[in-house]
Amino acid sequence: MGQLSGEQGAVEATAELEGLAAVERESGLVRVVAVALVLLAFAALALSGCGGGAGGDTAGLTPQSSTSCMLCHNGTLSGDYAGPGIENPHPFPGAANLDCATCHGGNVAGDTKELAHVPPPPQIGDRDFQDVNAQAYFNRLTLVGIDKFPDYTVGGTTYTALDYLQWINPGDLRVTEAGLGCGQCHAPHSDSVAHSLLATSSGIFSGASFASGVENEVPASVDLWQDTAADLGWRAVVDPAFNLGTAQIGEVSELIEYPVFSVRNDPAPDAIHNNAAYNAANLLDDVQADGRLVTGSELANLYHEQVAFTCGDCHLGSAGANNRSGDYRSSGCTACHMPYSLGGRSGSLDPHVNKLEPLDPDDIDDPEWAHVRAHKIVSVKKTLSNGATVEGMDDLTCAGCHQGSNRTVMQYWGIRLDQNENVRKNRQYPANPVSFTTTQNDTRLFDPVLGNKEFNGRDHRQYLAEEDYDGDGRDDTPPDVHHEAGMGCIDCHGSNDLHGGKVGDGRSELRSRQEQAVAIACESCHGTATAYAPTVAGTSYAGQAGQHATDTEGNVLRHVRREGDGHLYLYSRLTGVKHFVPQTLDTIVDNGVVNPLSTVPGSEPVYSASASYAMGRIDGLASTGIGPQQEDWVATGFSHTDRLDCATCHASWTNTCMGCHLEGEYNQGNNFSNITGDRIVFREKFADFVYQSPLMFQLGVDHNGEIAQMSANTKTFFRYNDLNGARSEVFAFSDRNVAGNAPSANFPALSHNAMMAHSIRGRVDSENEGPRYCVACHLTDDAITDFGSEYASFRTAIQTGDYDSLNWTLLQDHIGRNPGNQLNSPMFVHMVAGLGSGMFLFDAGGAPVNPLDIDPQRKPLNVAPSTVYDPADIVYDLDRIVSETGTSFASNNHPLLTPGVADLLRDGASDLNMAGPLGTTLTELLANPSTGLVLDSWYNADGQPEGNASTFVGP
């Protein structure tokens, strides 16, 4: 084809791009191939002058009325995205047609690609260079080390590394904090986010350091907040306004950059490269007698490195791995506000973006890049005053980071991770479900058009949609009711939680743990047992003034409004759909409230007798509900809601992981630090889970001093393969406060922490299990009548460490096939109280010890535990987190936000200002049939009243 003048080319380009836009609305392979063909035609025709100065006629370009960016990428002579090409990313009134260079930098007057674009640093190079240089490709893909590169000169112009980083991602926090890209207009947001846990990852980095017992690396933070203060972040950051006298629990003055010891050719004495000091045999002396790592030792450095490359890329500082379906994303603001597609392929109308890469969405290959779904900012679903529509930020945007080990989004969707495929292989421990369904047909994870076979590196056999362990036809792992209603993550977690605090308040706090940065609570929308959710004056996203709910920090929830009928409504940030928000008080007291949005008027009363019984107060007043009354036990004034977190009862299932094996190895291949981008000589060999189950949970005291569900986590065993191929011993550690693996603890339990399970249910139904009813946590008359003698033997065995005398077959049923305690088993209650089930016993090397498990591939030894069972090998009892005297056997990572608030709940503990297991009074109350509380009135696991409960709630 001949070359075209600028004007003629623009006209014909418009026609071609209109065809492209139509093709983009199609789907499947036809769409992809058509896009590629039109792209080629477009490039050959109208944009020949944009291809790098290859003889194209650029005389017609008119930067005065349009930039070269707009002409090449959108196909218009005006500056308003009127062409059919790349979309307007920022249609917001007042800044609806931003010049491309305002965000990306570059030269708007450049009439060739070379003159208009910012060239890459020599360490990155072009695609051809990235195809042969693995480090260049790694840093281009992940964006990790780009800010470390020196200035460089191309064509007589000197560039900084941030110039290039801005060019490819104006939302990167290193860019925005320099006042560039998004930071030009949104500096307060940038400052807040850059200091947030989402950006620093200090909760993971510093939490792991605390759990391994090494000393805090920031002198000013030593011993601060029960010695849990964060010290390490992805990049160094300082809070100049920090004042210890006014600081809240968890706030710190600074974080230092997470050090890297494994850089190739590093000659430093503590570097791992070719250093015999790191030989496996030399590591045995690196653990103190109390179980803590020796700070600065070789073993401490190795474990530190393992945490970095196994757990250290789920933050906003970089683009993460960015290399497989479900993990594709960018960094900083862009990670959330301009999400990538599931498979990394571009959904943009930009004709210059390759629509075919990555060819294999499950395994990107150099020199392929990943791309955005569309060149459009997403935020809160709304229609702007200029008529433009902004889409809401969907859950898939969150899932790449918030699933993995914490599995939050998957749980919210009703999906459980079964890493080892134990259920499919009929090797689930302690028992297999009667039935299960995989996610093979779940298009949220596996798009039939895209053709991806994996999500986050796992296939449909590892993600389970349904499990039924007791054969009652109900899913024991149901989705959260909020998800069922069509709500998304952002409907609860808004600006405060996601931006690191109140934007624009002049502070950019650095916090140590997640809960210290989360302001939303169930009560924010649903109120309490005694009061409706409070409201204040505010303005909705649509600009309407009214009364709005607030979070616990007083931030206005602009999407939650009290309307003229007196009810509270939530307008979904994800979809814009209106939802009625029932108030807890109305579920307890029959105020005649019904769901006004019900399709059948009056058919959905809010009041529930079972809710009134569970959450009401025993005071005889109709205005406070029924309360959990008993015929033979008087507790005047008692209400569960006084000291229980909402999710304690309402979370229907809990992700449990017993035994996590991390193993690293010395390796001189193409391994790169996700902290600095340097080539390193250490990589992950294994990251194995031993047991995963949705059935087990324990109660403990959380950071708020409330009783909450707890979960086994970071029960970590670590070993190392050195440069000679020798394998070290297996190590497990005590935390900085000498808890978790202290020699003084009989059968230590390693780490256990409260975790907000995103599996909220209101009631049981024909298809799904419901909340935790009374029998999940309490002994009952029937339980003692039916299993009293077995329970007595069980308690004696656990208390004396005589595990070989356990009735393993009985426990397989009472723990492994008993969701929500359908059997009304006292052994289940004993487990929930934190006193142990006897099912999760491990030896010194982190291998399970039990006679039930027949899996010949059971980690870490790939041997069936039943074939080598020897009770003399037992060293750890991983779900016995507390003794009957209140002594904790477990480590906990979280200080109380109000010191002293849990003294009565954790009596007997030595660390009363930490979250942790229940104390002696509560464990006795729950699990001791002689001196504790044995219910004579209760609700069973099917949500039906039993014993004398009908006396109080009616038939």
TrEMBL record:
Residues 501-618 form the Cytochrome c domain. Keywords: Heme, Iron, Metal-binding, Signal. SUPFAM superfamilies: Multiheme cytochromes. The keyword Electron transport does not apply. The keyword ATP-binding does not apply. GO terms for molecular function: electron transfer activity; heme binding; metal ion binding; oxidoreductase activity. This is Cytochrome c domain-containing protein.
